[in-house]
Every structure is written in structure tokens, then in C-alpha cells.
């Protein structure tokens, strides 16, 4: 059964020892980010817990971080599958979307603040990269809008800078699906209604960051992941619907023709991205559950929660495209977290012929031009998530002269500081081109046997393991 709300999932994380509740008092403008960074640095992913800060100084609302992506294990738990089944689970959800269901009321509107009563400063929104970020940022907002012409909904996780009690900056990277909604409304001089759902049922958040194709309502895929409709309620002040069990919902409008300085922000590349002239949201209303929980995604330098959840979403899309659309014998796809889960791709395949590795790389580059400055193809026996195995394949199955190919003038990996000429705003980097490198690290001819003891010898040793005194 799918989780109906964030609380159900938090309870499961707690039962399975995957949630660390922190009762010590913490300050939201430096300490939450620093504690979370240390947790990401000190714990191997397998042991790394999600965090619930119960005692944020000056606030009654707790802060949940890493709840969906402190590790791949936690992500798998949110989808209720084994780790190895994550990509196939996504494949199945995309093939069987489920339309959301409108209901009359939901817990996300147990408390309503409208107009003068709206005060975003009441929420414990953390500052992430202290000393660089100009203020607190909402990082886990599921930003909901509709195409004014087609009525098709989009849900995307875009960063929101807290600018006033009822004001937020909004940055949407080039190519992301809300941009045409705003452009079409601006052409008519209209604002764009926007709802930001915080802490909805886990499947909604996972879809919001998943890089689904344009024109796909992320909530239908969330329904596909859950095998049942996502329940929605109508917003109080705008013509949009939001997940009924979200912890907090911010209702507002993107103001037409207004751009304001937004940023800098400690980015997924591990570097601080600069200020840009970005959108402004005026907030009309905030609704929430009784005793709400504020959910944040931990971003900045990888590895982070953001690199975990965004990366898996991209992997699922690439896997589907390479395997189903192109019919390639791809067995696994991984975006390495060292590349911010964007710049460095490894594809594993059971190749039938010599041309398929290059076809897979070209397929990945054309499917999502923002990804894979470095793309490596390995054989099926190499686990793309095992860096040692990938290095081994690169070392002994790849011939630089024959197997490395570089293409110039492709779309740059978004926010890659190496391709930004000084003085060019990073937000216009979709206009900036970059070269990309593919490496075929598959075997080109029959190989000698691997230099390991026979497997039966190793199995015998396993059986006698304790006899050796270990
Ligand atoms: Mn979308």
C-alpha cells in the first residue's frame, strides 16, 4: 500500500531505524544545514538516517530533511520496493498513470491564513549555504501550475527564496515546464496562479523532481507509483488543485512582467550559483494541517538528498528511453553523485553488436541535453553504482584512441561552472554550448578469464568463515 501522507512514511522510517529525531534545540539559519551536512559526511549512505528536527529555536513547526533521499535505501522504502527494482517501478508507473481524484476537503486545509494573516516568516525555512545565500530557501516545494491554453497541470520542484511575509523569489531553470505557463499568461498581461505543496504524500514529491516529459501531469504518475489516485482539494484563493494530505500549501501568483534579483544559491554542482533576474510570487494564502511538519530537501554540494532523488528520477527517464524507445539492451543506468547526478552518466548494457554503446550515449545526449558531459558505457557485469568496478572497466576495456568520442557544441550541463564565460549570467547558460565525452568501456573481443579464485573455492571459504577466526 502506498503512503497516504508524509506522516505515515515518517512512522515507517522510525520503525525501521531510518529516522533520527533530533530533540536538541537548533537554529534554522545555520545549524540545520550544518548538522545535515555532517550527517551526509559522517554516515555511509547505507547507515545515513533521515532527520526530524523537533526543536527549532523560535518555531513550533518541526523540520524534516532527507526523508525521501538521505540514501537510495530510503528512496526505495518510499516506493516500497527493493533498491534493484527502483527503475522498473518507475517504468511501470509511467506505463500505467492514474488520474488524480478531486475530493471535497482534506487535512491540508485544516488551518487557513488569508491576506493580511499570511506570514511566511512563521515557517522554519532554513538558510542553506550561510554566507552566500541571501536568505532562507524553500527547497522541497512541489510547485503546481497549469498551462493556460491546454489546462494541463505541471508539478516541479523549483527553488523559492523567502523575500517577505508574502513574497517569494522563484527560479525556474531553462527548459523546465512551468516556464511556458508564465510566458503564455504574460503575453495576455495576466499573473500565473501557483500553488506550492510542502510535505505531500511521498510519491508526489518524487514525481515533482523526476524530470518527466513535458505535458505529463506529474500527479498521474504519482498515482501510477501508488496504484491509486492522488486525492486533491481545490485551493482557497486560486483555480488550482493540491494534494489533500500535504502538510502545508502556499497559494499565490507569479506576477507578470516583474523580475527581481534572486540568488545566489548553493547549487547542486557544489558551487554557489550567481544572482539572476527571476520571477516574483505574491502569496495570497497559506493553508496547513494541524501541527504541520515542514519538509525540506537537502541540496548544495553532492552527495545530497537532492542529488539522490533528482538523479534517480533522471535515471528512470533515461532507462525508459534507451530501453523502450530505442530498444537497446540496457540493463542499468546511473548518474554518479560526484557529478551532481547530472554531469557523469554510466550506462550498463548487454550489447549485441559494436555500435550499441555509442548509440546509447547519443540517445542519452539527445533525450536530455542537460545531462552527461561524461558518459561511460560498461558491460552488464559491471555495476554502474560501484565506482571501483567502473574504474576497472575504464582501465582495461577502454582504448582511448578508438573508444573515446568527443562531440562539440552540445547543450551544456546546466549550471556547470566550467562552461560559463565570466560575466554571462548562469541563468542564460542554455545559450552556452559545451563539448561532451563518451567512452565505450565495454569489451571489444573475447577476454581472458578474470584472475579470481574459482567461485566454488570462495563459497567453501564462506561456509568455513568463522573457522578462520574472523
Ligand atoms: Mn513537468
Describe this structure in words.
The strands form 5 sheets. Strands 5, 6, 7, 8, 9, 10, 11, 14, 15 and 18 form a 10-stranded antiparallel β-sheet that branches. Strands 20-21-22-24-23 form a 5-stranded mixed β-sheet, with helices on both faces. The mean pLDDT is 95. Helix 4 (86-95) crosses helix 7 (218-226). The protein has helices at 6-15, 31-42, 72-79, 86-95, 179-187, 202-208, 218-226, 305-325, 356-367, 387-397, 400-403, 455-463; strands at 19-22, 50-53, 63-65, 101-102, 111-114, 137-138, 142-146, 153-156, 159-164, 167-171, 192-198, 231-234, 241-243, 248-254, 260-262, 265-266, 272-273, 276-288, 294-296, 330-335, 344-349, 374-379, 404-411, 433-440. The protein has 12 helices and 24 strands. The chain starts with 5 loop residues before the first helix and ends in a 7-residue tail after the last helix. Helix 9 links the parallel strand 21 and strand 22. The protein is α+β, with helices and mostly antiparallel strands and 470 residues long. The chain is globular, with a radius of gyration of 23 Å. Bound molecules: manganese (II) ion (MN).
Short description:
With 470 residues, the protein is of the alpha+beta class.
| General form | globular
Hetero groups bound? manganese (II) ion
Structural class: alpha+beta
Would you count the extended β strands for me? 24
Question: What is the number of helices?
Answer: 12
β-strand amount: 15-25%
The largest sheet is: 10 strands, antiparallel
Give me the Rg, rounded: 23 Å
Average pLDDT for all residues: 95
Unreliable stretches covering 5 or more consecutive residues: none
In angstroms, what separates the terminal alpha carbons? Answer: 41 Å
Helix content: 25-40%
Oligomeric state as shown = single chain
Amino acid at each position: 500500500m502506498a503512503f497516504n501522507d508524509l506522516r505515515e512514511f515518517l512512522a515507517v522510517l522510525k520503525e525501521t531505524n531510518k529516522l533520527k529525531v533530533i530533540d536538541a534545540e537548533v537554529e534554522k539559519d545555520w545549524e540545520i544545514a550544518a548538522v545535515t551536512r555532517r550527517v551526509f559526511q559522517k554516515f555511509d549512505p547505507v547507515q545515513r538516517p533521515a532527520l526530524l528536527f523537533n526543536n527549532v529555536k523560535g518555531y513550533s513547526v518541526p523540520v524534516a530533511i532527507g526523508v525521501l533521499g538521505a540514501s537510495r535505501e530510503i528512496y526505495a522504502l518510499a516506493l516500497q520496493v527493493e533498491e534493484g527494482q527502483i527503475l522498473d517501478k518507475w517504468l511501470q508507473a509511467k506505463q500505467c498513470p492514474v488520474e488524480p481524484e478531486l475530493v471535497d476537503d482534506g487535512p491540508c486545509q485544516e488551518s487557513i491564513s488569508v491576506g493580511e494573516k499570511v506570514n511566511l516568516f512563521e515557517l522554519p525555512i532554513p538558510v542553506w549555504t550561510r554566507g552566500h545565500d541571501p536568505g532562507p530557501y524553500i527547497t522541497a516545494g512541489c510547485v503546481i501550475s497549469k498551462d493556460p491554453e491546454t489546462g494541463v497541470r505541471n508539478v516541479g520542484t523549483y527553488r523559492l527564496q523567502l523575500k517577505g511575509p508574502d513574497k517569494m523569489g522563484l527560479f525556474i531553470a531553462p527548459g523546465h515546464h512551468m516556464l511556458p505557463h508564465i510566458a503564455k499568461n504574460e503575453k495576455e498581461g495576466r499573473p500565473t496562479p501557483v500553488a506550492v505543496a510542502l510535505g505531500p504524500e511521498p510519491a508526489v514529491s518524487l514525481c515533482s523532481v523526476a524530470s518527466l516529459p513535458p505535458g505529463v501531469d506529474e500527479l498521474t504518475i504519482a498515482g501510477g507509483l501508488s496504484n491509486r489516485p492522488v486525492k486533491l482539494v481545490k485551493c482557497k484563493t486560486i483555480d488550482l488543485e493540491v494534494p489533500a494530505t500535504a502538510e502545508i500549501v502556499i497559494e499565490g501568483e507569479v506576477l507578470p512582467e516583474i523580475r527581481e534579483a534572486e540568488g545566489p544559491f548553493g547549487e547542486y554542482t557544489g558551487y554557489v550559483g550567481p544572482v539572476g533576474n527571476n520571477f516574483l510570487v505574491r502569496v495570497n494564502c497559506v493553508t496547513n494541517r494541524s501541527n504541520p511538519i515542514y519538509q525540506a530537501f537537502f541540496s548544495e554540494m553532492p552527495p545530497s538528498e537532492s542529488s539522490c532523488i533528482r538523479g534517480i528520477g533522471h535515471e528512470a527517464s533515461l532507462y525508459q528511453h534507451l530501453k523502450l524507445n530505442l530498444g537497446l539492451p540496457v540493463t542499468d543506468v546511473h548518474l554518479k553523485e560526484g557529478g551532481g547526478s547530472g554531469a557523469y552518466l554510466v550506462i550498463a548494457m548487454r550489447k549485441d553488436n559494436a555500435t550499441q554503446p555509442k548509440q546509447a550515449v547519443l540517445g542519452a545526449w539527445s533525450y536530455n541535453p542537460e545531462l552527461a558531459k561524461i558518459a561511460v558505457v560498461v558491460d552488464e557485469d559491471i555495476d554502474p553504482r560501484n565506482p571501483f568496478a567502473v574504474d576497472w572497466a575504464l582501465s582495461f576495456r577502454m582504448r582511448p584512441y578508438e573508444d573515446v568520442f568527443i562531440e562539440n557544441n552540445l547543450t551544456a550541463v546546466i549550471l556547470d561552472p566550467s562552461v560559463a564565460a565570466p560575466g554571462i549570467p548562469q541563468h542564460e547558460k542554455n545559450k552556452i554550448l559545451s563539448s561532451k565525452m563518451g567512452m565505450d568501456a565495454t569489451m571489444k573481443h573475447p577476454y581472458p578469464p578474470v584472475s579470481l579464485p574459482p567461485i566454488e573455492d570462495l563459497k567453501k571459504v564462506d561456509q568455513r568463515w568463522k573457522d578462520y577466526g574472523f
